[in-house]
Amino acid sequence: MIERIVIIDNVDPVSFYGVNNSNMHLIRNLFPKLRMAARGSVIKVIGDDAETAEFERKIKELEEYCSRFNKLTEEVILDIVKGNAPSEPKQDDVIIYGINGKAISPRNANQALLVKAFRENDLTFALGPAGTGKTYIAIALAVKALKNKEVRKIILSRPAVEAGEKLGFLPGDMKDKIDPYLQPLYDALEDMIPAVKLKEYMETNVIQIAPLAFMRGRTLNDAVIVLDEAQNTTVHQIKMFQDDNHRRCHADRPSAFGAVGARAGSPHPQGGAGHRKSGVREEGHCAPLARAAHSRGIRTPR
């Protein structure tokens, strides 16, 4: 009899174990010769060496499925433990699967163009009226890159534009004063990452949300940077943002000078190897341009 410890650190334990530990009860029934206990992201199992090794292999397969689709059902557990291929949703254009397995995908040709531009270029501008999903898609692409281990962190930035109330008169410390301006970014993240995992990412600075003013002087490696509401930046701010980092995605509203979303990877000298630039616009810092048509928004009216 040996004891083996299996760590599931890529998924939310609540999603993995199921409601009232229903998934763990099923797994226990499928491995009757083993004794196991689960707490947090650690599963401790005691039994024969060969059986515990097989148990660990199946748990890792279940973890991989749960990480990809953000849900784990009894049917999937039965298929994987019995060695069958689990059924997978057939959607080629899905960016990621959000909470409870909700598929997040482009809703029209303009959003699909943004996804394509982000994939092929280091710097992407998304222009369009409010409510067309520019920021939401940019954050979904950033989360996908993080889950696929293409980057090590996500930086979400937004200029803190006052809407009648002065920042200094709001209660709390600096974070409390700034957070209300960054709430749209939190809302998008909460749709895509389970609460426990999101809290862990925030505490370990894997995901950082910061006002644009605090981005000065930062050079980031292996990161995705999304600048939202870029129409509210000054000329000096937008130059600072683009000079200090070399992989970005911007989302903008032309009528107000829009929202910018970006992806940031390992920095390269401008024009050097690895720095890709779209030919859609040639002057200045312009890069891949995905424009949401004014005549029809990305969110289709219901």
Task: Write a concise keyword list for the protein shown above.
302 residues; alpha/beta; six-stranded parallel beta sheet; three-stranded antiparallel beta sheet; 9 helices; 11 strands; 35% helix; 17% strand; elongated; disordered C terminus
Largest sheet entry = 6 strands, parallel
* Order of strands in the sheet with most strands: 8-7-9-10-6-11
Structural class based on helices, strands and sheet pairing: alpha/beta
Secondary structure: helix percent: 25-40%
Radius of gyration based on Cα positions: 22 Å
Mean pLDDT: 77
Distance between the termini: 60 Å
Fraction in beta strands: 15-25%
DSSP, total strands: 11
Q: DSSP helix count?
A: 9
List the secondary-structure elements in sequence, H or E: EHHEEHHEEHEHEHHEEHEE
> How does the overall form come out from the CA principal axes?
elongated
Structure, explained:
The chain has 302 residues and is an alpha/beta fold. The protein is 35% helix and 17% strand. The protein has a 6-stranded parallel β-sheet. Strands 1-3-2 form a 3-stranded antiparallel β-sheet, covered by helices on one side. The longest helix is centred in the first third of the chain and has 21 residues, at 49-69.
Helices, strands, pairings?
Layout (H helix, E strand, L loop, with lengths): L1 E6 L5 H5 L4 H9 L4 E5 L2 E6 L1 H21 L4 H8 L14 E2 L5 E2 L4 H12 L2 E5 L6 H14 L5 E6 L15 H19 L2 H9 L3 E5 L11 E5 L7 H10 L3 E5 L36 E3 L11
Parallel strand pairs: 6-10, 6-11, 7-8, 7-9, 9-10
Antiparallel strand pairs: 1-3, 2-3, 4-5
